[in-house]
């Protein structure tokens, strides 16, 4: 039994090392410029160990992207949970999403390579699991308390999520530091227009 536990920990350590090294390399050079053998060497494992965990470079990238998206989702949730009022939670979470997208690692992996490598549909499904779920929950609460007009939340969630993803994609290609605060102000105005007068 003890041997099985040790092997399981070793397997998990190998997997984490592969994801960590792949993430570092994808962030620095982009998915297309990184070869599997470079990742294997950097992780200090064999090619067989890599294929034990991931059947392709794309599968490894998917794990890296899922990790990045989960971290962004957690940052959004932390920002929202730091506020007490539901409206402030929504605006803080949205601002945190845009701010997270300015991190060069997040930009490269999540905003640039993610849709290109996995395709828009799969990338969007991963986004739905991480950030969009929090947005839907916040919007449901605001409709329930009367801050937003009574309406179906699913289309509103997709409209706002799409707008924020598009803004984050644009910010990923911008080198003007004034663009983030300007985008966050524009988003606050857009959200404010949705409120019940």
Automatic annotation (TrEMBL):
Annotated InterPro entries: Homeodomain-like_sf (IPR009057), HTH_TetR (IPR001647), Rv0078-like_C (IPR049484)
Residue ranges flagged as DNA-binding region: 35-54
Keyword DNA-binding in record: yes
Keyword vocabulary terms for this entry: DNA-binding, Transcription, Transcription regulation
Sequence ranges assigned to domain HTH tetR-type in this UniProt record: 12-72
GO function term, MF aspect, one: DNA binding
Pfam annotation, one family: TetR_C_41
The name this protein goes by in its record: TetR/AcrR family transcriptional regulator
Species this chain originates from: Streptomyces coryli
